[in-house]
Amino acid sequence: RGLLLLAVALALGGTVAARCPAPCVCDNLRGHVLCLNRNLTAVPGTIPQLTKKLDLRGNSFMVIPVGTFLATPYLTHLDLQRCKVEKLEEGTFRGLGRLVYLNLASNGIALLYQESLDGLSSLQQLILQGNRIEEIQPGAFGHLGSLTVLDLRANALVYLPDMVFQGLQALRWLRLSHNTLHVLGSEAFATLPALRRLSLDHNELQALPGEALARLDAATRLDLGHNPITYVAEEALAMTSLKHLFLDHAALQDVAPDAFTHSPQLHTLDLRENQLQGLPPLAGAGGLAKVSLAGNPLLCSCLLRPFRDWLVRARVQVEGSCAAPPALRGRPLDSLRPPEMRCGHPQPPPSPAAPSERPRMAGGRHCPRGCACSPDFHHGSCENRDLREIPRGFPGDTRLLDLRRNTFGTVPPGAFPGLKELASLHLQSCGIRALRPGALRGLESLVYLYLADNLLSTLAAAAFEGVPRLAYLDLDRNAFTRLPAGAFVLLPNLISLHLQHNAIGELLEGDLAGAGGLRWLYLAGNAIGHVAPAALAPAEMLEKLHLEGNRLVEVPTAALRGLPALSELKLSRNPIKRVGDGAFLPVASSLQHLYLDNMGLERISPGAFAGLGPKIRSLYLESNKMSNIPDMSNFTGLEILNLQDVPFRCDCQLLPLRRWIEKLNLRVGATCRSPAEARGLKVKLSTTFQTCPGWGRGEAGRGSPDKTKAASKPSKTKRSRKSPARGFKKSRA
Length: 733
Fold this sequence. Notes:
Blueprint: H1 2-11, E1 25-27, E2 32-34, E3 53-55, E4 63-64, E5 77-79, E6 87-88, E7 101-103, E8 111-112, E9 125-127, E10 135-136, E11 149-151, E12 159-160, E13 173-175, E14 183-184, E15 197-199, H2 210-213, E16 221-223, E17 231-232, E18 244-246, E19 254-255, E20 268-270, E21 290-292, E22 298-299, H3 305-314, E23 317-319, E24 322-324, E25 372-374, E26 379-381, E27 400-402, E28 410-411, E29 424-426, E30 434-435, E31 448-450, E32 472-474, E33 496-498, E34 506-507, E35 520-522, E36 530-531, E37 544-546, E38 568-570, E39 578-579, E40 593-595, E41 603-604, E42 618-620, E43 640-642, E44 648-649, H4 655-663, E45 672-674, H5 705-712
Parallel strand pairs: 2-3, 3-5, 4-6, 5-7, 7-9, 8-10, 9-11, 11-13, 12-14, 13-15, 15-16, 16-18, 17-19, 18-20, 20-21, 21-23, 22-24, 26-27, 27-29, 28-30, 29-31, 31-32, 32-33, 33-35, 34-36, 35-37, 37-38, 38-40, 39-41, 40-42, 42-43, 44-45
Antiparallel strand pairs: 1-2, 25-26
């Protein structure tokens, strides 16, 4: 059709440029070039320089080399759908500074590199729907400051790391539907100040990602439908501008009364097609005007009266009808009168997980006795059924299997036959002491394995035979006294490893053998007193290292060598009294977040932060014992700095810090402990510095008492909001 319309346009007066590539059609008047379905293996090199719209759909480019579009700098629209593109070289689109629309849908792109989209400073819409994107490298969107719509639907994303969307200051709609997202970093959305709509529907989120969503101050619509979320907890959602929330077609069984207390502008709540038998009065949602409960098994007994009464008082419109008792089945909720909602011995709809049942699935399939299987969500659950053996017979298309809180003791070989599509397996709190070799054999699609709160003390590599796609392994709160050395050699795609709150005493060379793709390593709450210099070397792609709450007495500087991607290091709550020169030098080029709080730290050497500089975004030093800190004037990228509960001595030695703090647009919480006349005062307001040599330089007008009093008056500037994590964020004033 496009070719026909363009041919008609040309016949009516358009001209074909002399340099138009032979297989393409060019409209020189409008600056359009159409090379649709021409089986091209490379972008034609003779496209007219003044071309504005270039349509290359349906070709076979595979890889687009750097510099391909340098000869067409006036392009505003570029369509590369269905071109079999597998890789975007760094710098592929350089020279396209006028491009506003780029469509790369339905290709085979698996990874977005840091500079893949460099040069697209005017881009407003980026369509990446229907690719194979499993990972987005931090900084991939750093040059897209004008982007308003980012479409990442129908890819293979399983987790979003912190700051992954950094640089998208103008983004208004982020579309992440139809992925397999299960893990969201707490700061995944921290750099999206203009975002109005977030689409997270059709993913594998099992809980409301409240911490990540709290960073979206301007978002008005949130789509979370078609996720296996079973419960919305107290104060779960803190989105101050949110008006429309969609939690339809999930697995909700309960919602806390004050779940939406911190979302005061919430207007529409869509809870259709869940498993709700009722709701409490949602008193915290003062602005709510409409609740949709259609498709839920609502039990209209006296237990639902408080919710019905709240609807009337708050004048909230409701959609939905009763499923029970039989006398009220089919009655709309808004037609009920309190006397009709009686208690006695109503017969509620049968529990989907009653132990005495053997539910029959659609198409004649069965579910193991005592379990519940959902054909719509491809989920199976036998949670807390007092089972002694792992049940068999789940439907072959099961993708999430929840076996928590049973008493299995051992997971034998071949425990999960016929579950080739299983992506998420929950075995928490099952008293498991042994994961036998071959226990997971056949789970070729498994991505998430939860083994927290068990009794495991060792693991053999053979236990992970047959799960090559495993990316997320949770072994928190077990009985490990050391890392299970060599256990990860069969897990080439392992991204996140949780071993928190075990009894690990040291990290030795070889412990992480085979974990070459590891990005996040969580070891908080162990008894680690020593990290061997080569212990972390196999994990050369490591981005996060959490060692808080251990027994380290010094920064493990030698062990940090060979970690060029490390961006977050947590050493909080270790008995480290002194930080020496060059302590973080091995990771100085990548480190962004450093936690040194609550350690009893007494001294930081002048050269402790050598090499660190503008890349540092957050630094936590609160609750320590040092009275001074080294020069940090080159930390120009700081967004969070916490100096609370540090006993600063506000004398002339602290004057450089005082000057630096005053220049920062941050609230740092620094107060004086001494001398006595300054005790309790903010460092930047203390008058004890006025007697210091050189005070007059740069402090014009701040030396007099009157000026000092004026400086202490409340500012009319908008105060910065405290970070949901800890510390203080950069002011938005």
